[in-house]
Amino acid sequence: MDVLNELLGGFASALTWQNLLFAFVGCLLGTVIGVLPGIGPVAGVALLIPLTLNLDAAGSIIMLCAIFYGTTYGGTITSVLLNTPGEAASAITILDGYAMTKLGRAGVALTIAAAGSFIGGSLATAGLVLAAKPLGSLGLMIGPPEFFALVVVGISLLVALAGRSMVRALISGALGLLISMVGIDPVAGAPRFTFGMERLLDGVSFVAVIVGLFGLSEILSHRPGKDKVTVQAPGMRSLLPTRTDWRRSTPAFARGTGIGFGLGLIPGMTGSVSSLLSYGAEKKFSRHRNELGHGAIEGVAGPETANNAHANGALIPLFTLGIPASPTIAVLMGAFLQQGLTPGPTLFAEHAEIAWTIIASLFIGNILLLVLNVPLVGLWTSILKVPYPVLTGLILMFMVVGAYTINFSVFDVFVMILFGVIGLALRHLDIPLAPLVLTLVLGPLMERSLRESLDISRGDLTIFLERPVTVVLLLVALAIVCSPLLKLRKPAALAAEDPET
Amino acid sequence: MTSVTEEKPVAKVRRSVLAGQAVLTAVGAYVLAESAGLGLWNDLGPGPGFFPCILGAALVLLSAAWFFQERAGVQAAPAAEASDRSQVRAVVLSLLVLAAALPFIGFQTGVFLFLMYHLRLRARTSWIKSLVIALCGSVGVYYLFTLGLNVSLPEAGLVPLSLIGL
Amino acid sequence: MKRILAATSVAALTLAATTGCGAAGTASSSGEDFPRQGKSVELIVAFAPGGAVDTAARLVQPVLERELGTNVEVVNKPGAGGQIGYTALTSAKPDGYTIGATGSPSVVVTPLDPARGAKFTREDFQPLGRQVIDPAVVAVQPDSPYQNLDELLQAAKDKPDTITATTTGQQGGEHFAIAQIKEATGAALSPVHFSEGASQATTAFLGRHVEVLVANVSDVTDLVKQGKAKVLGVMDSERAEALPEVPTFAESGHDIVAATARGYSAPAGLPEPVAQKLEAALKTAIEDPEVVAKMDDLGLATSYQSAADYKKFWAQQEADYKTVLPLVQAK
């Protein structure tokens, strides 16, 4: 009951009308900025930090959290409507989000995304309130060998992302891993596959690759007359999800929350891993898995829930251990430090009131996100009323700005164009794109954790068989890989259209 | 395989697919060769070339597997709908030109011309509409980003343009 | 001091001369209009968020913003023990809009070992000012079987290369510290390299995946407060202010000194006025009483050095580390 009392106290001090105003303004500005190309949550929060500098500790952190939620949601808006992800964590949403837009269901996708973010965020925050301490130490159980095994589980979900052919999915996965190898080797510092280009030492920029592979290649493969009828601005009625949509989204919300929250606890995991794995899980376990990729609501609900649950779950290592688990959290931590607060367990001991106010403000931020964005969905989707050829020109301009602002260099614009062409070729060859994105994100994590593990064991590979958590995870991965191999020749989903049957 | 069924010419592998497989194999071989030079294994486990080596080998093997699958007609890639060549060419070329020109003519001029090309010449939007949208998209976006958000966009490097602040 | 004065007057003269000419074209290249309105300064941190480098940069950032009158954005580019971030820093345009946090030994040592294929040398950096010196420490779990330094070292002698210890990357400060311990005492700890930075190393230590935490004073200050780590020794000539009860290595009879020195640098070739402005802004930011107080809270003792002194210090460090480099090179 103690916790509840303190939380209520937190709400009492967070719920002043000034703070609500800050949160409202922050959420609105965040969303608008998140919609702009090239400005993801990290840059968005960093841009708006000056607004918060003159506020008191509670006010400034409430506003920052609201800005953070806003920018994240802004990235989702562009993913769904324009097929251009604002940041890595919502990259996978474009698969089904944009497909839904093509079906005239953009409003539903955005509403469900907002609802999913709210649910994932609130539940993760509830986890933070109820069991921060034990959960924090749970995250610590994941050492390098366990981390490696987890990444292997993630990569094994690749089999779920396969389209018609497992071989082509694996090719796509191998390509993603290879792209992630470009740059300076993360352990020994040797440059790999940089072709002597200085710009590549830092690796290929993820956002440029994604924007090219999905957004640009989609425009390139567009044929006049095909989409004209289908891309349409939805009417007011079709903005709201139907009862079926809600029913189908519920399991995806649950899985997304679980995956995002769990991975958020682990220092070093990024939000994009959560959203990708959640998509993989939907592909594997959803009752409607065959519709995924063609505009299924689960493909939006799962990842969007997961990345917000991840973001809130990642606050647990921050509060319990003082470890910022992701770049956005690091920006938040910066704001804490500015206010003279050291994040970590001492925060609850020394500034309990502020700590609880912050937690209360996380809930408030989540609620604001919902009440602010659902009514605005109609406004956002009206972007689609712009005629397609005009929209194409503007989207291309957005992509150029987005790619340019990654490193403020045209090099990334060229990378984006190159991957647009590669994406077109892969589509042409029926090589699925999703596995490439999955491995592109997981590649560096896998390599790093493997080499750290082998440092611990002095080069002995049996370390992966000696630790119970690792063994369980590797078995899970094996089970996932083996399940479709049993029907390698005729995937059930395709039996109907396979001419050989 | 002389008799080809009406539904699907199983034995005939599309030329573009063959080309794709050849490219993938070549990439795999290149990676294999390159990774050997990076150091595969040292006394503390895998070296920098370890992962690339496995991936290169995997890519070569997978391409081969795909080739045989395709020939046998198993899980073959369906004939892709041909994409609109002129669309691809116009978009890719205009983007390349824009990216190459940005450092010289700056964001405002470059994007203005780019948008005019796509709106007026390709989409046949009316002159007034094109002009308004192109101006908003170039000058408007430029000032929104640089003044409003403190995010810098490319400026012109060539003398006559750079002097008037584009 | 004289050098700074001289440099300032030279800069003032150049400034006067260029303004006298009044050509708009030259103004932007010589840089006295730095920083331009609407252009933000990127501060590259070559380690993951949460380490001392990152924390210090984030504390300095707002004062820098105030002094420079423009946005300063902290950007983390972790990996390869700092090499990835340093490469990004040195390959940036020397126009003042990209600066970075530089910490020795990592920044000093990376270019010395040809095996790393570093694209930069000491000459590619323009030091702007040193902020802190952070001595290395050796810490264990509070319930560890090794309750003092001698027990740990004896155990490492008895069973060489079995007790694991964290570093923040091959040839980082901690790797050197481990090598120095081995050289001086014969106790061989087995290094585990967390090339993303101290926060990853600390996490693995807290999760008991690695037995010994080799880190800096600032990394363990908060852990000690929480009772999550027991510091066995500080590798410095004096006890650390933040850890007054912990003996130095010298007190335990081992003459080992190891520390990480951190400051800020730009890519070499800054126009003089830009360098002046950045140096002055950094000096104000680093010596800002509020920043110093917050740094002290985190166990970071501010030890400012001007650009010129930091440059000399850097050269000295390079000479020192050249001699011990063979200890940490891959065989």
UniProtKB/TrEMBL annotation, chain A:
Keyword Ubl conjugation belongs to the record: no
Keywords from the UniProt entry: Membrane, Transmembrane, Transmembrane helix
Q: What parts of the sequence cross the membrane?
A: 20-49, 108-131, 138-163, 169-188, 200-220, 259-279, 314-334, 354-374, 386-407, 413-443, 464-486
Per UniProt, residues of the DUF112 domain are 20-438
Alphabetized Pfam families for the sequence:
TctA
Sorted alphabetically, which InterPro entries does this protein's record hold? DUF112_TM (IPR002823)
Record-given protein name: Tripartite tricarboxylate transporter permease
Q: Which organism is it from?
A: Arthrobacter mobilis
TrEMBL record, chain C:
The organism's lineage is: Bacteria, Bacillati, Actinomycetota, Actinomycetes, Micrococcales
Species this protein is from: Arthrobacter mobilis
Q: Which SUPFAM superfamilies match?
A: Periplasmic binding protein-like II
State what protein this is by name.
Answer: Tripartite tricarboxylate transporter substrate binding protein
Spell out the family assignment given in the record's similarity comment: Belongs to the UPF0065 (bug) family.
Is Disulfide bond given among the entry's keywords? no
Which segment of the chain is annotated as a signal peptide? Answer: 1-23
Going by the UniProt record, its keywords in alphabetical order are: Signal
Mind telling me which InterPro entries this protein's record contains? Answer: BUG, Bug_dom1
